[in-house]
Structures are given as structure tokens and as C-alpha cells.
Amino acid sequence: MVRVVRVVPVVSLGSDQVGVLLSWVPHARGGPSQRSGSGTPSVTLRRNRAYLRRRGIRDRPDGSPRQRPHVAIRLDVANGFARFWGSHRVEGVLSSVNELKNVLADNHYPGRGVLWCRTGNGDSLGGYFLTGRSPASKARALHRTPEGALLVAPSEPSAHDHLRHYVAARQSGQWLVFGNGEQVATVADRLDSGELPALALDGLDYEPDPPIFTPRLTVVADGRAGGRAWFGAARHSNGGRTATNRLTLEVSHLEPGEGVLLTTYRSDGHEIATGDPFTEVRITAGNRRGLLDELWDSLPPQLRIAAAVFSPGGLAEADVRQGAPAQS
Fold first, then answer.
1. Average pLDDT of 5-29?
2. Sequence-ordered alpha helix ranges (H) in the chain
């Protein structure tokens, strides 16, 4: 079991099983999960149905809120941790989750994205995609390396850019690691040294690219049958604070047709902001090749650079699709 230091005890959120972090303050109550001399944050959470609706969850006909599938979330906010989770599933909740194509169609510039899902045939698969606007961003491609990794590299001779060129997916023992930057190699190295996923995802920071400060998104997926997946997001505060907000989401027991998506950006066509912390999506594809088609067709055609779909232990056989070469 992963030991997380400074953890809030289980918080009851009523039938929503979802809340919005409003504030935290140090609390002197001790507990077995604390280090000596440290305090446990006390977290104020509230139901927020508008927030739930943005996540694709609607109330039941009788007005009571639906429950979420099992997820576990850990927040690291200004050196304090909060954990809250729900473990109930209601028949029919999947129908209230938006399809992947609709979620991405509503986002005029998703940037880069990570997806973990199960297709109709029951396969657990990862997905990664690149979109871009500038010539430098579009002049990239996804390559399989001889070592069985996926590499984002220049599509034409150019200098290395550590924010644009990186290992996007790598296998580390039983763990499949993929994401949108150099932190993928860092997390894989930590897993190789014996760290568990939640701790391997800790301590990462957002990209130093003001004014938007792109989130660093990373997924660690267990390659064993029925395995779990951990999403890590290192995000800049929406305010003036420079300390990184770190979100760790643990997902388990996905059913065929279910998935979780993270994107770096969200745009209404006029303004661009960092993407939502996570979005649950419905997958219509029946198999891996169908998932690549579904993912590719959902991206804005004028911004598509590359996309890949892969399974744990199967990066060497990843299905990769490239966009048209950038025009100079």
C-alpha cells in the first residue's frame, strides 16, 4: 500500500462522492500517516453541481445527484495534501458521460493529451496525441525507437528543444509510462529504482513557458490484467502563486467503453487556458485500431500533428498516425 505523508482522512461528500477544494489549513490532529512534527491539512469540500455538470454528470430524474465510478484523487496544494475518493457505481452512469469525440470537438485547441481507456473488446489501452499551431510545434513527429519507446522528435533537422522534443512513452518493468514531456523519463527512472506510482509522480513541476505555464501530464499504467492507472498533473495556480499544484488521480475498474482524458489546454476558439484537471469520456471504438481512428478523427484537422495508441508491454507495436508535414 502506498504511504502518502500528510493525508486527510476519508471525507464524506454525501451522495455526490465529488467535491471542489475550497481551502485548507494546518490541523494539529495526529495520525499514523504523519511524519513526526508535521500537521495534517483540514480540507473544506462542498458539493458543486455546476462543476459536476461540466464533468458530464447530470442529476437523476428525482433531482438527486448521480454517483461517480471509482476514482481516488490526491491533491498537493502549497505543500499540503488532500485525498478524497468515491467507490460507488450506479447503473447507467456511463450514458451521462460525453463521448471522446464530443469532448474534443468542444475544445478548439487541446494541445497535447493523454488517454487511458478500455475499448469494446476489453483491451486496456493508452493514447497520446499532439496538436500545434506554430511552425515549430507542427514540425514534429512520433517515432518508435529501437528500445521500444515513443519519441517526439523534429520532423526536419533542427536544434533540440527540451519542451517540444522528448520521450513520450516508455515501459518500466510492469509499468507503462507516457506523457507530454521530459518528466516521462524521470518518472520511469523512479519506477525502475523501486518507487511506487503515486510517489514517482510526486515533485514534478509545470513547464516554464509563461504566460500559460503548460501543465505536465503523466500516466503510469499497471500492465497486469485488471491493473490500475495513475494520472499526474503538475499545474500552475490560476492566481499569482508560483508553487506547483500537483494532482494525482488513481483510476481502477474501468468498464469497456470508459476512459479518462487529460489535455494541456482548453480553448473556446478565442481564448486559451490550461485544460481541466481530468475528464471522463465514453469510448465507442471496439479495438485498438478503431481507437486510433476515433482519437485522430476527434482532433481539429488543421492542428493535428501525431497520435499513437498502445498497450502495456506493447510500445514496439504501437499504432502511430502522423499529420501532413509542416509547410515552411
1. 32
2. 49-54, 100-105, 135-138, 183-192, 197-200, 288-298
Determine the Cα–Cα distance for residues 54 and 113; give it in Å rounded to an integer: 18
Q: Which residue has the cell 476527434?
A: 298
Query: Would you state the pLDDT for residue 325?
Result: 64
Q: Identify the three-state secondary structure at position 30.
A: coil
The whole-angstrom separation of Cα 155 and Cα 147 is 20
Interatomic CA distance for residues 15 and 72, integer angstroms: 16
4-18, 52-66, 91-105: least confidently modelled range? 4-18
Contact between 260 and 278 (Cβ < 8 Å): yes
Q: What is the rounded distance in angstroms from the CA atom of residue 153 to the CA atom of residue 140? A: 6
Quote the CA–CA distance of 90 and 71 in Å, as a whole number.
14
- Strand, helix or coil at 150? strand
